[in-house]
Amino acid sequence: SPVLDLRVKGASNIIGDRSFSKNPKIVSKIGDYCIENFHKNGIGTIIKHIPGHGRAEVDSHESLPTIDSCLDDLLSREFSPFIQLRLAAAAMTGHLLFTKLDPTHPVTFSNKIINDVIRNLIKFEGILLSDDLSMNALSGSIGDRYINALKAGCDVGLHCNGNVQEMELVAKACPGIKNVAKSRIRVFLKKVADVSENREISDINELNAKLRKGLKGFF
């Protein structure tokens, strides 16, 4: 959390009501409030699914979504909330094939998209985590998936299905964490600690009131 993907008519319902809105400005605003107030209460946040899952017509848990939109269109819509919240300390990739950006590799395995789009165009500098590497959008052995995600530029590969045999394969494939990833993790932990230190946990009603006040005029 927060999910910064847009709600897109005709797309897969896998994002569904996890999306704040079809409007990128509203998504950015609510996402910003989520990050601010979660961090004030000592809860780390991860923006997802960078660079934008909204147009996916299939569920990436089941198969690989293919998105044929051009870069300019994506920048003005799906990528926009991630650009606005690029200073977030952590983000999760989407398993998506953007054919006009990299016709061969999904985002999680694409050095081109991670470097050229996520790092250089969106200018995200925080920890980059993969989405669950056991999802059916990806191909190859679980160990190869892990290595491919790290080679492409992910700092951390996530394996989430609880299969112990697969966990052992991922552990064997793990090359160890790079210094740049360690540095990004330290920044992430410091951001959360700095704003939550010596602060009482806010009442949920107070947070909701602040959210409604901050979004006045957006609806």
Could you characterize the architecture of this molecule?
- By secondary structure, the protein is an alpha/beta fold.
- The chain contains eight helices and six strands.
- The strands form two sheets. It has a four-stranded parallel β-sheet with strand order 1-3-5-6.
- Strand 5, helix 5 and strand 6 form a beta-alpha-beta unit.
- The longest helix is centred in the C-terminal third of the chain and has 18 residues.
- It is globular and about 50 Å long.
- The two termini are 22 Å apart.
Secondary-structure blueprint:
Layout: H1 24-40, E1 47-50, E2 66-67, H2 71-76, H3 80-84, E3 90-93, E4 97-98, H4 111-119, E5 127-132, H5 142-152, E6 156-158, H6 164-173, H7 179-196, H8 204-214
Parallel strand pairs: 1-3, 2-4, 3-5, 5-6
Helix pairs in contact: 5-6
